[in-house]
Design brief:
Layout (H helix, E strand, L loop, with lengths): L1 E7 L2 E7 L5 E5 L3 H5 L3 H8 L7 E7 L4 E2 L18 H6 L1
Antiparallel strand pairs: 1-2, 1-5, 2-3, 3-4
Length: 91
């Protein structure tokens, strides 16, 4: 599952990108939750709660502006590419 945070219709939205990478299914999130991007989905999954339901709107990916998945993280994020052998050798 690929989750995207994006701008559409002047608002931040969160959705699920289809397997072809051409459409995004908008999730039914309150505006305050959507402002936090995918963070609410991560927290829900960690707590064992179900993900929000789709709103019923599917939008071509070309019509949205993609944003950082976590535009308002709770703390600094550090990513390390240790899942690739070449990156691991760099460390």
């Amino acid at each position: 599952m690929r989750i995207a945070t994006f701008q559409w219709k002047g608002r931040r939205q969160v959705g699920i990108v289809d397997t072809a990478g051409t459409q995004v299914q908008v999730l039914a999130l309150p505006a305050d939750d959507a402002q936090r991007g995918a963070l609410g989905l991560v927290e829900a999954a960690a707590a064992g709660r179900a993900l929000p339901q789709p709103s019923g709107e599917s939008v071509p990916l070309a019509q949205v502006t993609l944003e950082a998945p976590l535009p308002l993280p709770r703390r600094n994020l550090f990513c390390v590419g240790r899942n690739y052998h070449a990156h691991a050798k760099e460390l």
